[in-house]
Backbone:
C-alpha cells in the first residue's frame, strides 16, 4: 500500500509564496489592493511568511531596503498595480544604489482585463524598469514557482539588485494541484580581475595611497582584511560618502569618509598619488556645480581597481595581502573605545552628536538621514561601541524612517537609532505607524531645523543669487512649524520635544531603555 | 534715435519661466532640490508666477491635478530629478485619467554630469513615460523658450494631457541675452466623427437609451445641452463611475452615476437597448472578478459613439439636437433645490452625508476620495446648491488632500470640502501643511473607519476565503488607531474629532464658516 501525494488544490499565489519561502524569502512588506487579495489570502494560509503592513508604499520599499541591508538577503514586497509600485520607486532607487537584494511582487489586472484599460491600468514594466535589474510579467499559472525562483536568483545577482515580478490576478487565483517549490541557484560573487602586482607596487611605492571602499570591504571579513591592509601598508581607507552598510565603532578598523561637498572631497583626495577602488567606482561629485569638476580624482593620481560591486572583495583582499607578504592576522588599526562626554547648554547638532555617541548601545543600528544636522555625528560615534551604520545611498529623501523599520524587523534584538532630518522625515512619515504596530525598538531623532537647510547651502553653492523671500519660502518649513510630537503620537509612537542639551541627554537615555518605538524632536 | 532692446543677461530658467507665463501658466507647485536651485532663483525674480511648496511630490502633482480640473488650464510643477518625479507618479496617473493638462518641469543633472552616474542619476524619461503624453529633455539653452511653448501646447492637446520637460541644471544656469517668450499655438477640440443620423434614430426609436457621459458633457455648455437632450428624448444620462469634474446640484440637469461594483453596473445598464458614448469609452469594470464579465455593455445593446475625449462634445450635442429637431433652449430636467434634514444619534456615513448635503455652501468644490464611506454622499447632495464634484479618476489613492489643495488655489473664493477615507488620507497627508501655509479654505472630513474597508469587501468578492487574522491585519488600520486630530494639528491645520451625528453637524457648520483649512475626524 503506497500513500498518494497530497493532491489538494492550491492557488497560483500559494505556489509563488511556497517557492519564496523555500528560497529563504520569509518577510513580506506590503500595502495590498484588490488585485492582490488572493496573494493576501495565501499569506493567511502560510504563517511562515511574516507580513508587515505599511500605510504607504514608500515605507514598504524603504523597509525592504533596510531589511536587506541588515539581513543580507531579500525580503519580498507586495505592491498594488502600477501606482502602488510608483509610490515605492524613490526608495527602490535608494535600494538599487545600496545594492540591496529585493523581490517586488506587483499585482496586475487579470490577463484578459488588461487590454480594457480600466482606470488603474498602467505600464507596470515601464515604472519598474529604471530601478529593476530584472523584470518579468508572469504569463502562466504553471510557471509561478519557477518565476518566483528566477526572481530570487536575480535579486541575489551581482552585488544584489531589485527583481520585479508582475503577477496578474487571474494567475494568482487560478487553482491547480500542489507542486514542489523550486530552488533558486546559489549565488557566487565574481572573482576579481585586478592586476594585483600593480596594486601591490603602488602600495609598496612609498607614495601616498588611498583605498576608496564600499560594499563588502566595509563589513565582516572584508573590513577586517581592509584594516589589515591599511595598517600594514600605511594606505588610508576612505569610504564613499554614502554607504549601504558599514560596521564601525570601537574595536573595528578606522575608515575615513569622503566629504559630501565636491571641493572638500577634492581637497581630501589631493593628498594621494594612487587611488585603489575596492568594491566601488571612481569618485564623482553628488551634483554638478558651475566651475567645479564633477570627477573628483585628482590630476596625476593613478586609479587602480581591485574590485567592483559584485566581485568577491574578501578573496581579492586576501590575495593582495598574500602578494604583499602581509599576514592576514595582525594589527588592523582597531579603534580604542571612547565615549564622548555629554554636552550642556543650548541644543545644536554637536550636542545631539555627543549624546548619541555617549549613549549608543552596543550593536545598535544607526540609520542616518540627518542631512546637514548630522555632519558631526560620524566623529562623535566613531569610538562608541561597535554598531552598524546605514546611509541614504541614492539621495532620494524619505529613506530613514522606512529603512529603520526594516532594519528593526531584520534584527529584533538590536536597538535602531534613526538620525532623521525633518524635511526628509515628512516624505515617509507613515512608516512610524508600522513601527508602532510591530512594536519595533526604534528611536527616531528628528533634527528639527525647520528648513531644507541643505538647499539653503546649495542655493549659494550653485552660484544663484542671495535668495529672496519667495526662494526662501521654497526651502523653509517654518510657516507653519511642524509639530513632530503631535505627528508621531498621532501614529502611536511615543514622542517628546527637547530644546536644551540637558533635556536631549535625558530623553535619549530614557528612550534607548524603553522597549518599542519612540521619537525625540530636537529643536535646533 | 532708436531705443535698443534691453540686453540684460538672463538665465535659461528665466527664459523658460517667461514663456510659461506668456502662455498663461502662472502657478508652480513644487518641491525643489539642488539641481533646481536656478529655477528657484528665477522664480524669485518673477513675482507673476505663484509658487506653492509641497512637502512631498505626491502632494505637488495631486495639487496640480486639482488645479487643472478647476482652472481649466495647466499649472507647472517643479520636481527634483528622477526620484522627485517618481514620488509624484501616482497622482500623475490620476491626472492622466482625468485628462488634466499639466506641465512638469523636472530638474536633471548638468548635461556633462549625467554620464558619471552620480547617486541621484536615474532614467527620468523612463519614469515619465507611463504617465506623460509628451516628453522632452532640453538639449540647448537657446531652445528653452520653444521647449516651454511646446510643453504647454502638448499639455493642452486632445482632452488635456501631461507634458514632462526635463531641464538639465547647466541649461538652467546658462546665461544669455534676453529673448522674447514664445507662444504655444491655441488648442482646438477635434470635430466629432459620429453618425448623427444613427444616433438620432436610436433616440427616436422608442427603445430605452442610456447616454454614458464624462468630460465636456458634464460641465458648462455641454452639460446644459446634455440635459436638454435627455429631457427631450427620454434618454437617461449616466455618468462614468469616476469623473474628473462634474457640475451638479440644484438647477442643473440630473445625471445618474454608473455603480462601482461590476454586478450593479451590469444591472443598471441591462435596462437599455442603446448606449451612446459621449466624451467617454465603453464601460468596463474597475477590477476583474472571477466569473464576472469585465465588459459591462449588456449583450444585445447597441453601442453608438457621439464623441470621445478630445472631441468637441458641445458642438456634437448641438448638431445632434438639430438633427432631432429639438430646440437648444427648453426644459433641461433641472433639479429642484432641496437640502436633506440633519440626522441625530450615532455617527455613520449616512449621517455625514446628510450633514454635507444640509450645509453645502453654494459653489462649493467637493473632492471625493471617501471610498466606502462616501457611497451615500451623491444622493444626499444632488439637490443641494450648485457645486463642482471631483472624483478619484485613476484609482491611485492619495489624491484627495492634494487635489483639494490645488482646487482651492485655483478658486480662492470657493469653499472646498474634501471627503476623505482614512487609509487614503495617509498616502499624501503632507498636503495638509500646504493648506495651512497657504491658508486655503478647505474642510477635510476624514471617514475614520480605521480600515481599508473596500478591501474587506473586495476580499470576498474576488472569491478569496473568509479572511483570517493575518489577512485582516493587512486590511485594518486599528492597531494602533490613527489620531487624525493630532496629525492635522501637527501640520498646522485645526482639527476636531466627532463621534455623534449632533457633533458632526455642529462641527461642519462651524468649519464651513471658518476661514482657512480645518479637519473633522468622523469616527464611523
Residues:
Amino acid at each position: 500500500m503506497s500513500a498518494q501525494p497530497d493532491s489538494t488544490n492550491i492557488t497560483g499565489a500559494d505556489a509563488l509564496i511556497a517557492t519564496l519561502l523555500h528560497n529563504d524569502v520569509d518577510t513580506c512588506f506590503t500595502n495590498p489592493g484588490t488585485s492582490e487579495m488572493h496573494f493576501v489570502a495565501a499569506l493567511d494560509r502560510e504563517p511562515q511568511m511574516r507580513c508587515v503592513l505599511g500605510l504607504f508604499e514608500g515605507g514598504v520599499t524603504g523597509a525592504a531596503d533596510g531589511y536587506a541591508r541588515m539581513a543580507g538577503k531579500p525580503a519580498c514586497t507586495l505592491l498594488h498595480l502600477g501606482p502602488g509600485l510608483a509610490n515605492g520607486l524613490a526608495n527602490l532607487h535608494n535600494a538599487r544604489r545600496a545594492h540591496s537584494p529585493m523581490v517586488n511582487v506587483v499585482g496586475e489586472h487579470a490577463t484578459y482585463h488588461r487590454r480594457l484599460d480600466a482606470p488603474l491600468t498602467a505600464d507596470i514594466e515601464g515604472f519598474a524598469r529604471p530601478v529593476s535589474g530584472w523584470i518579468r510579467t508572469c504569463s502562466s499559472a504553471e510557471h509561478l514557482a519557477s518565476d518566483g525562483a528566477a526572481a530570487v536568483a536575480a535579486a541575489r545577482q551581482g552585488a544584489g539588485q531589485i527583481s520585479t515580478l508582475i503577477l496578474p490576478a487571474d494567475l494568482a487565483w487560478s487553482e491547480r494541484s500542489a507542486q514542489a517549490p523550486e530552488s533558486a541557484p546559489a549565488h557566487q560573487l565574481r572573482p576579481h580581475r585586478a592586476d594585483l602586482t600593480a596594486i601591490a607596487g603602488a602600495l609598496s611605492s612609498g607614495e601616498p595611497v588611498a583605498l576608496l571602499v564600499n560594499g563588502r570591504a566595509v563589513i565582516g571579513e572584508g573590513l577586517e582584511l581592509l584594516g589589515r591592509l591599511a595598517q600594514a601598508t600605511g594606505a588610508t581607507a576612505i569610504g564613499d560618502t554614502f554607504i549601504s552598510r558599514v560596521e564601525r565603532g570601537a574595536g573595528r578598523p578606522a575608515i575615513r569618509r569622503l566629504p559630501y561637498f565636491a571641493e572638500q572631497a577634492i581637497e581630501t583626495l589631493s593628498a594621494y598619488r594612487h587611488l585603489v577602488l575596492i568594491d566601488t567606482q571612481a569618485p564623482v561629485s553628488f551634483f554638478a556645480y558651475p566651475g567645479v569638476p564633477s570627477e573628483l580624482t585628482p590630476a596625476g593620481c593613478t586609479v587602480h581597481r581591485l574590485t567592483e560591486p559584485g566581485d568577491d572583495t574578501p578573496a581579492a583582499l586576501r590575495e593582495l595581502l598574500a602578494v604583499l607578504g602581509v599576514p592576514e592576522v595582525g594589527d588592523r588599526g582597531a579603534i580604542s573605545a571612547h565615549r564622548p562626554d555629554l554636552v550642556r547648554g543650548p541644543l545644536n547638532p554637536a550636542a545631539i552628536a555627543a549624546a548619541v555617541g555617549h549613549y549608543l548601545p552596543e550593536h545598535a543600528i544607526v540609520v542616518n538621514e540627518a542631512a546637514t544636522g548630522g555632519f558631526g555625528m560620524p566623529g562623535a560615534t566613531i569610538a562608541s561601541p561597535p554598531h552598524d551604520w546605514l546611509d541614504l545611498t541614492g539621495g532620494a529623501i524619505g529613506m530613514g524612517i522606512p529603512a529603520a523599520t526594516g532594519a528593526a524587523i531584520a534584527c529584533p534584538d538590536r536597538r535602531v537609532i534613526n538620525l532623521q532630518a525633518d524635511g526628509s522625515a515628512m516624505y515617509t512619515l507613515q512608516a512610524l505607524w508600522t513601527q508602532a504596530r510591530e512594536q519595533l525598538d526604534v528611536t527616531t531623532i528628528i533634527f528639527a531645523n525647520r528648513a531644507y537647510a541643505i538647499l539653503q547651502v546649495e542655493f549659494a553653492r550653485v552660484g544663484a543669487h542671495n535668495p529672496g523671500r519667495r526662494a526662501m519660502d521654497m526651502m523653509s518649513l517654518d510657516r507653519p512649524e511642524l509639530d513632530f510630537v503631535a505627528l508621531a503620537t498621532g501614529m502611536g509612537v511615543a514622542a517628546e520635544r527637547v530644546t536644551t542639551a540637558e533635556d536631549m541627554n535625558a530623553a535619549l537615555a530614557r528612550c534607548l531603555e524603553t522597549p518599542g518605538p519612540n521619537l525625540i524632536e530636537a529643536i535646533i
Remarks:
- Chain A touches chain B through 98 residues (CB under 8 Å).
- Confidence is low (pLDDT under 50) at residues 1-6 of chain A.
- The longest strand of chain A covers residues 102-108.
- The radius of gyration of chain A is 24 Å.
